[in-house]
Amino acid sequence: MHVKKPTNSEDPQRDDMKKKTSCFSNIKIFLVAECALMMAQGTVGAYLVSVLTTLERRFNLQSADVGVIASSFEIGNLAFILFVSYFGAKAHRPRLIGCGGIIMALGALLSALPEFLASQYKIIDSWSKDLGRDVCSNTSKVDELCGNRANTNMMYLLLIGAQVLLGIGATPVQPLGVSYIDDHVRKKDSSLYI
Q1: Burial level of 68, CB count in 10 A (0-12/13-18/19+)?
Q2: Average pLDDT of every residue of the chain
Q3: For the whole prediction, is pTM greater than 0.85?
Q4: 23, 31, 90, 177: most buried by Cβ count inside 10 Å?
């Protein structure tokens, strides 16, 4: 027979706190997750910079197009930073950072998608000898070599959208993460955590 202990009616908040406590409601766990998100953001950004010339050659993009792809991250970030900074102080900051991480993951998957959707490389001798760099602007052999120009434009738009999503997802990570850490650690430990 199990006897139920009487509850103390003077301390209902303490009982509620015991129920809501989880292993994830720890500032150190939050710090690890924040560092992982910042590392993922930096890794994806560094990877994009390293493959810009490859994207330019593979999809026959101009340098201006590659610059638009690279700056799309900042465009997405700038579009949302005011809203996130203002409304983020009033909302549940770890949830907003988690949603940003999910959006960043979606943007990273979309930025990898052109490698899987595009056809494999085909080396053509006449590419470098007869026709020059921009094959599709040349009038000879246009039907043969430029059949996938629409495919290139779709990949270009896909890469821009992926970078915008990465920028939107990265928006809450830095400002909300730093303020959350600053609010939930002791004053003397704040600089160490940040």
Answers
A1: middle
A2: 76
A3: no
A4: 177
